[in-house]
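Structure in, sequence out. Go:
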């Protein structure tokens, strides 16, 4: 799952991003409201961590723009403002939860898991095809009931392909979704193929029966969503 961290404190944003990546999430950062809004209108995020005090566009205005555009992505507001009025204002404007700074990373991760579980009740919580079962909320995957030990990038690639089942997805699209701002087409041209090769090895799919190569396009998982 993909999470956007919006906070003008660069060290904190990077710390949160690292913690999310270690939990096998894909995480992007934005240091001001304009940058965040640009990303939100382009990329499909599963959750947004949003500070209130931001340059250019503050968190309240950004949240208003999102909800006015019918973007229903869950929002967890992060702020140094601990007042009741700010908390009520954010929730009334469409925020899903609120966490005042300073906070422990453990509590933040717990809040994130709770929000993702809640939002995933609106859709099928587990993606399945053939013998593969993938749980986006808990960041777990299994084949024939046996857990798969996937890296964060491998999990994100498999998750994206299963969400896009029966549709060929280009290497560039996969890279942009999984790597986000880190993706450089000039230096990472072979990175997708390497990750696909490792992923196939872990799901025991050396013949490409599950994860198909579509010549001239990219990759696809073919099957019926259960």
């Amino acid at each position: 799952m993909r999470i956007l961290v919006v906070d003008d404190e660069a060290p904190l944003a990077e710390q949160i991003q690292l913690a999310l990546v270690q939990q096998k999430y894909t995480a992007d950062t934005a240091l001001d409201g304009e940058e965040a809004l640009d990303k939100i209108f382009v990329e499909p995020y599963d959750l947004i961590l949003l500070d209130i005090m931001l340059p250019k566009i503050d968190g309240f205005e950004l949240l208003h723009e999102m909800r006015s555009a019918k973007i229903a992505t869950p929002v967890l507001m992060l702020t140094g403002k601990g007042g009741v009025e700010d908390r009520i204002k954010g929730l009334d404007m469409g925020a899903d939860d609120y966490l005042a700074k300073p906070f422990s990373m453990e509590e933040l991760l717990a809040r994130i898991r709770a929000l993702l579980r809640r939002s995933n009740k609106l859709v099928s919580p587990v993606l399945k095809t053939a013998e593969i079962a993938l749980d986006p909320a808990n960041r777990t995957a299994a084949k024939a009931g046996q857990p798969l030990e996937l890296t964060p990038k491998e999990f994100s690639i498999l998750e994206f392909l299963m969400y896009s089942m029966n549709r060929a997805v280009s290497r560039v699209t996969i890279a942009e979704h999984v790597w986000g701002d880190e993706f450089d087409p000039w230096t990472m041209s072979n990175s997708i193929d390497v990750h696909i090769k490792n992923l196939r090895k872990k799901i025991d799919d050396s013949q490409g029966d599950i994860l198909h190569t579509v010549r001239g396009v990219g990759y696809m998982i073919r099957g019926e969503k259960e």
